[in-house]
Amino acid sequence: MVPEHHDADSHGRPWWSWAKANAWVPVAILLLIPLGQLVEGDSFSRYAQRIITLVGYNIILAVSLQLINGVSGQFSLGHAGFMAVGAYLAAYPAKEHSNKLADPFSVLVFYASLAVVVAIIAGVLYGVLKLTSLLKRVHSSLPAVALLAIIAWVAVDISKTATAAEAGLATPGWCVWSRGMELVQQLFGAMLEHGGPAAAKLSAHLPAALARPICFVTLLVGAGCCAAATGLIVGMPALRLRGDYLAIATLGMAEIIRIVIQNSRPLGGALGLTFIPKGTNFAWLYGCVVLTVVCVWRVAYSARGRVIMAVREDEIAASSVGISTTRQKVTAFVLGAFFAGVAGALFAMNEQSITPTRFTLDRSIEVVVMVTLGGLGSISGAVLAAVVLTILPEALRGIAEYRMIIYSLLLIVMMLLRPQGLMGTRELPSPMAVWRWWQGRRQPKGVAA
Asked: What is the helix (H) or strand (E) element at residue 300, kind and residue range?
C-alpha cells in the first residue's frame, strides 16, 4: 500500500512549493502600504491621484471581464450591472449597518439575512420553472406560454398592488406575488432587528485597530458574493445562448439591474446613495488589483482554466468528451461577476456617493474595449489596455475640442494595425518566473558530462 502524503496538494506538489510560488503576493501587497503613503502625500497632485485610482478600478474590471470574454470565449455586455450590484450592496450596509465601518458583525448579519431571502426567492423560482417544464409532456410550446403568462401575472399583480396602496385600499386577494414579497421583506427586517443588537455587542469587543479593516473586507467579500450570485442567476439560463444573442441577454440584464436600483427607495432611487463611509485608499485598491490578477491568472492557467479554454475553442468537441460546457461557462461568468462586484464596492467606498447613471451601457462598452484592445485571452493585455485607455483620454485633455475624435481615431488605427490586440494571446512573465530566470542567470555554468 502506498502511504498517504498529507503535505502535498491535489497535483502531488508539497504545500511549501505552492507557498514559495505565491510568496511574492503578500510581499507585493505589503509594499503597497509605503507606496500608498507616497502617492497620497504631497508628491502627487489630486488630479494624478484620481487618475491612478481610475486605473485601479479599470484593471479589476478588465481582468475580470477577460475571464468571461477572453478565456471562456463568451461575449458579455453586462459587466456594469455586476459592478452596480457590488457598489450598492456595499454602500447600503456600509451606510446603514456598519456604524462608520466599526461594526463588522452587523454587516455580516445583513449579508446572512440577504442570503436567506435570496435562497427563498431562488427556491420559489426554481419550483416555478420545474413545474412549467413538466408541461412539455403535453406540448413542447406550453412551458414558454406558461412562463409568459406568469410574467404577465406578476406585472399586473405589482401594478394593482401599487395602485391599491396609493388609493389607501387593501391588496387584492389574488395578488399572491406582492403578498409573498411583503412576507419576504418582513422576514428580512425581522432577522436584522433580532440579529443586529447582538452583532453590535460582539463588534464592540474587537480592538479598534481591527474592527475597521475586518468590516471593510466583509463589505468587499459580501458585495462580491452578491454580484457572483447575480451572475449565477443570469448565467444559468443566458449562457445557453451564444454570440450576439448572449450579448443582448447580458445587456438586458444590466439594464434591468440599473432600472430596479433606480426605482428602489432603500437604495436612494434615481438620486442614489450619499455620505457613504470612505474605506478605500491606494493600498486597499491596488491590493485588490494584485489579488484579482493573481486569482484570474491562476484560474485561467489551471486545469479548470484549460477545460474552460477547451470549451471556448470547440464546444461540440468538449461536450463529446464529457465536459459540461454550461457549467464551465457559468464558472467563468460567476468568477468574473465576483471581481466586478469587488470593483463596484471599492468604487462606492471611495467616491462616497453613487447614482444609477454611473453604471450604464457606456461603462460596459468601455471595459469591453479594454479587453479587446489588450488581446482576447491575455490577462497582461487587459492590464496594459486598462492603463493605456484610462490615461489616453486625460493626456488628450489639452485639445478638448477634438479630444474624443482623436481618441476614437487612435483606437481605430490600433485595431487596424494590430487586430489581435496589443498582446494577442501572449502573457508577460510572472514575478516568480522572472526571479527563477534571474537566479538561473547568476548560477555558474556547469561542465557538460
From this structure: helix 282-300
